[in-house]
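tool=predict chain=A
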Amino acid sequence: MANDTLQGLFEIVKARKAQPEEGSYTCYLFDKGLDKILKKCGEECSETIIAAKNMDNAETVNEICDLFYHLLVLMAQQGIELSEVEAVLEERRKKIGNLKQFHQTNKES
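tool=predict ok
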C-alpha cells in the first residue's frame, strides 16, 4: 500500500476525530474510547491470523486492511502521527542484514 494511501486514510480518520460526523463508524470508535479501539485491533489481528492460517490470500488481504484501519484509529486516538511510525520503520529498514551482529555476545563478560 502506497504511503499516500495510508496518509490519505489517516487524514480522514483524524478529521473524523476532530469533527465527528453522525453515522460514522470511525466516530463511533472514538466515542466508545480506547478500550473499544484496542478490542477491535485485537479482533482484526486474530482474524488476519486465521485467514492466513486458512491459506486464503484474498481474505488475508481484507483482514490486513481492516487491521491497518483500526491501527490508524488507535494512532489518532493516542496522538501518534504516521510519520513517527514511518521514521521507526525506516530506521529498522536500514538495519536489515544485521542479524549476525544482533546475536553476537561478549563471551568475556
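Residues 88 and 94 are 10 Å apart (CA to CA). Helices lie at 3-18, 25-32, 34-53, 57-78, 82-94, 99-102.
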